[in-house]
Amino acid sequence: MAGEACPCGGGEFLLCCEPFLSGRLVPGTAEALMRSRYSAYVREDIAYLKTTLWPKYQRSFDGPATARWAADSHWTGLSVLAVSKGGEADREGTVLFEARYLAAGKLVTHRELSLFRKKSGRWYYVEAVPE
Q1: Over the range 28-55, which residues count as b (16 or more CB within 10 Å of their CB) and which as e?
Q2: Is 90 exceeded by the pLDDT of residue 3?
Q3: Cβ–Cβ under 8 Å, residues 6 and 39
Q4: 46 near 70, Cβ under 8 Å?
Q5: 53 DSSP 8-state letter
Q6: Who contacts 61 (Cβ-Cβ below 8 Å, separation ≥6)?
């Protein structure tokens, strides 16, 4: 929809995360991938979450549980707190973020330092790492 705000807070959805979620483009940075994954949670695009997960972990991805969590959560915002590497010329990077959502009537803040790696020109989410 024209003018619809992107869930990640990066502007208009059609110009921000939609090209990634639709598969027309791939995120060029770790931060862009992280933002698009947040948008995928908001939009309950579980297939995108699986395909952007590090290939080694895709087989054990629990799609039904992820879908339940995404559906049961009312996503209220994303804040990117820090980015280390993860640029177009890098092969690895981290993004520190806070995602806020309502679950069972409680406001929850999920804070995570995420590790991202690039393989064959594509960024993937690998795992949460200690701050």
Answers
A1: bbbbbbbbbbbbbbbbebbebbbebbee
A2: no
A3: yes
A4: yes
A5: B
A6: 49, 50, 53
